[in-house]
Amino acid sequence: MTLRFNDLHPLLSGAGQKLYGGEAISQLEHALQAAHFAQLAGGDAAAITAALLHDIGHIICEQQDHDVAAGIDDQHEFVAVTALKDLFDQRVLFAIARHVEAKRYLCATEADYLAALSPASQMSLQLQGGVMNDEQAARFAASSYAKDAIFLRRCDDQAKVVGLVTAPLNYFLQIAKTICISKELA
Ligand SMILES: [Fe+2]
After folding, report:
1. InterPro entries, per this entry (predicted)?
2. Which residue among 34, 89, 98, 144 has the highest number of C-beta atoms inside a 10 angstrom radius?
3. Ligand 1 centre and the CA of 181: distance in Å?
């Protein structure tokens, strides 16, 4: 499934009202908060866009909480990249594609990172391949996408605050629009 830019708003505001797996906020709130923290941390339009859309694969898959409990990983990061490939360049796509690996990397390289993850995120870690070994971590750190993926991951981890007020969806979609590569918008 590939998306057009105009699909993003209905998808995030519609199906995005569902709870974000195992957390107390909706998918839409999680997306807005991730974009909010990306902007707060000085991220550029690509970083903010990646944060806003990083879990759109979850919405597309309509994964239910019990999928994780049943040991099923929906590979949502790759579903998102396929869906967004006509809309954004590789910087956005790679950050999204690798944000799960960034979590596995940070668990391997930062002493307190694993313990600070939410219970749902700790549970999904096992389905996603667990903590990276030294060789995997070194390869990840040397990759061209590591910096963007780690930045996204940190925004993702913060974006679980019940009741946090952020700018609305249209505000962040306007930022995304500035870097959309689709000719549809020309
Ligand atoms: Fe997320």
Report:
1. HD/PDEase_dom, HD_domain, OP_Dioxygenase
2. 34
3. 24
Domain extents for the chain?
A: 5-99+151-185
Note the CATH number of domain 5-99+151-185: 1.10.3210.10
Q: How far is the CA of 186 from the centre of ligand 1 (A)?
A: 30
Tell the burial category of 127 from Cβ atoms under 10 Å away from its Cβ (0-12, 13-18, 19+): middle
How many Å apart are CA 121 and CA 117, to the nearest integer? Answer: 6
Per-residue model confidence as pLDDT tens digits over 127-180:
889 999 999 999 999 999 999 999 999 999 999 999 999 999 999 999 999 999
DSSP secondary-structure letter at 131? S
Q: What span, in angstroms and rounded, lies between the C-alpha atoms of 41 and 108? A: 23
Give the distance (Å) from ligand 1 centre to CA of residue 55: 5
The dihedral formed by the CA atoms of 98, 99, 101 and 103, expressed in degrees to the nearest 10: 170
Can you list the positions of beta strands (E) in 64-178? none
